[in-house]
Amino acid sequence: MLIYIYMMAITAEAMSGALAAGRRNMDIFGVAVVAFLTALGGGTVRDILLGNYPVNWTQHPLYIYLVLGGGLVTIIIARVMRHLHQLFLVLDAIGLVAFTVIGCNVALGLDYEPIVVLMSGITTGIFGGILRDLMCNRMPQVLRHELYASVSLVVAILYLFMLDLGVGENVTLLAAFSLGLLLRMAAIRWHLSLPVFRYSQEQWD
């Protein structure tokens, strides 16, 4: 089940990347690059950092076809994408949880310490969005707007905690997805965010 959710998530993330590229008036190649980095960038960075070779998507060409197809479809249906905004928010939240859980599983399979497992989950969950925004020359939204990276952290902690307690995999996944979706949707609905650090040298002179 998780693999099907993952494929749905990378397609949705690819489409969000394509939209971001379109807002910057990129050509078709630029759209494809941004879509690819948004969807598969988090997992790529994770595998490189963990020394997990070969990188996951190189062993699954279907992921590449899904990502490029998602970018192409976005170009074709761009004029109606605004009507799908709410759907994309839900799919993005599902993707965040799925990427986080998969990132944790990869690190667990490599016998890393719990703190590294947490960082692997978070990196997989948020780094695609960071790469998308950097490519589009804007401050990464996952670090500024409603709770996002912190949702990934909470999901990773819950997932590891329940596994450590010996809870079944299906129940653990259900709990992780339920909590992750609840937190992300609540953050969007009520604009919940972490405290902002503002520093101005003149302020302290």
UniProtKB/TrEMBL annotation:
Alphabetized UniProt keyword annotations: Cell membrane, Membrane, Transmembrane, Transmembrane helix
Domain Glycine transporter intervals: 5-78, 90-162
Major site of localization recorded for this protein: membrane
Superkingdom of origin: Bacteria
One family name in Pfam for this protein: Gly_transporter
Membrane-spanning intervals of the chain: 28-50, 62-80, 87-108, 114-135, 147-167, 173-192
Compartments, record wording: Cell membrane
Residue ranges the record marks as coiled coil: none
Membrane topology: Multi-pass membrane protein
GO cellular component term of the entry, any: plasma membrane
Family the entry assigns: Belongs to the UPF0126 family.
Protein name, per record: Uncharacterized membrane protein YeiH
Originating organism: Marinobacter persicus
